[in-house]
Amino acid sequence: MTRSRLILCCLASALSLSACYRRAEDPAAVTPDEQSQLNDAAATLDANVVIANDVDTDADGNTEDPS
Predict the structure, then answer these.
(1) Mean pLDDT throughout 22-30?
(2) Residue 57, SS3 per DSSP
(3) Are 60 and 67 in contact (CB under 8 A)?
């Protein structure tokens, strides 16, 4: 095989492989369903947040009954 044919075969192989190559989606990407679940979880956490400064405790760290 001549040198030019060898180069041509290599280029043809490289081009055919690159044409068949399909770039995978970003594996770290979040699907719309996962995004919805994350938003629901964040809303739940926000609804259940406790602000530490709003909790009254005595000297021993026990929660005091406001009544």
Answers:
(1) 71
(2) strand
(3) no
